[in-house]
Specification:
By secondary structure, the chain is of the alpha/beta class. The chain has 13 helices and nine strands. It folds into two domains: about 120 residues, Putative methyltransferase TM0872, insert domain (DNA polymerase, domain 1), CATH 1.10.150.170; about 170 residues, Vaccinia Virus protein VP39 (Rossmann fold), CATH 3.40.50.150. Bound molecules: S-adenosylmethionine.
């Protein structure tokens, strides 16, 4: 076994069994990951599946009405959007955006062509939402940002987001632009890598992992998710690893945030979105880690001094039952802001 390599099979706290490093792809899939779910899943391939997080709370905050104009700025597979559609029919308008063309296509298929509302789906960055709505001539009654990735993206090995499946080290949501993770990790200095792992992943072993990445790439370039996982496992001593989460979780989160520039301009995007609201319109944001939530909180506090009110003093979080049903919701925080003037 290579230094730092894991035993062949481990049972992780999620209950998933997988063969690590030797046959990463052959881990047994949990039933919820299998295809054939009616949302685009194909037998033998990971399902296009994503369970919308805190749907009741989001819809209650958005308070959409028949004939209303709803915007889903992060459409994903359209789980929240389908509920928004039910709230605005008949006669409303749904505008949906996603950076990822595969997600957009799946959402398009799921939403179909309802004859009682208007649907506008766009391959666009939510940072361009203001221009888009101005061009379309809409002011929104409700806007949702459900930040980060959806399960379908994580479960597609070829996208390179998963530390459980071997795939190219890509991690771009929009594969038509930007540089894949492999290219960035091939040229960053150890100090830059360390900083990203610390700032975006709260990784305590940031320095050791950065050092290992740079040492490894002197021998051969990092090309796959497995290459990155091997660096992490070689850098964190087994005794120091958290049992609750996979050792590569924080590293993959941090690199993904870097690759997609997820936090850059998020504050401005939220301010712009708030400016697109009709009177009494609501902006709801679901965030999944402390870096994101800090930006949302700060942006909302600022907006609350200029004609908006926050609907909750503290962010709403999912209940125990939802977390048990949908573990991905565990870290979610919902903040909502309403236009008062
Ligand atoms: C958590 S998922 C949304 C899931 C969705 N609410 C559902 O119920 O299916 C987030 C989605 O936002 C997209 N996304 C992330 N950053 C984006 C951005 N800057 N502009 C547009 N879409 C983005 C991702 O590609 C992903 O599909």
């Amino acid at each position: 076994m290579k230094p730092g390599a894991e035993p062949m099979a481990r049972v992780w706290s999620t209950g998933m069994t997988y063969s690590w490093l030797s046959t990463v792809r052959t881990r047994r899939m949990a039933p919820t990951e299998r295809g054939g779910d009616g949302a685009g899943g194909v037998a033998g391939r990971p399902a296009m599946r994503h369970v919308p997080v805190m749907p009741e709370e989001v819809l209650s905050d958005l308070a959409l009405k028949p004939g209303g104009i709803a915007v889903d700025a992060t459409l994903g597979l359209g789980g929240h959007a389908l509920r928004m559609i039910d709230a605005i029919r008949p006669g409303g308008v749904l505008v949906g955006l996603d950076l990822d063309t595969e997600m957009l296509q799946t959402a398009r298929d799921r939403i179909g062509k309802p004859d009682d509302i208007r649907v506008e789906l766009h391959h666009q960055d939510f940072r361009d939402l203001r221009e888009l709505l101005q061009r379309l001539g809409y002011r929104a009654d409700g806007i949702l940002f459900d930040l980060g990735l959806n399960t379908a993206q994580v479960l597609s090995p070829e996208r390179g987001f998963s530390f459980l499946e071997e795939g190219p080290l890509d991690m771009r949501m929009d594969r038509s632009r930007g540089e894949p993770a492999a290219a960035l990790l091939g040229k960053m200095t150890p100090a830059q890598i360390e900083r990203v792992l610390r700032d975006y992943g709260d990784e305590r072993w940031a320095r050791a992992i950065a050092k290992r990445i740079v040492e490894t790439r002197k021998q051969r370039p990092l090309k796959t998710t497995r290459d990155l996982v091997e660096c992490v496992l070689a850098a964190i001593p087994p005794k120091a690893r958290e049992r609750r989460i996979h050792p590569a979780t924080r590293t993959f989160q941090a690199i993904r945030i870097l690759v997609n520039g997820e936090l850059e301009g998020l504050d401005l995007a939220l301010e712009d979105a708030a400016g697109c609201l009709a009177p009494s319109g609501t902006l709801a944001v679901l965030s999944y880690h402390s870096g994101e939530d800090r930006i949302v909180k700060t942006a909302f506090r600022k907006l609350a001094q200029t004609g908006f009110i926050e609907l909750h003093r503290k962010p709403l979080e999912p209940g125990e039952e939802e977390v048990a049903r949908n573990p991905r919701s565990r870290s979610a925080k919902l903040r909502s802001l309403r236009r008062t003037s």
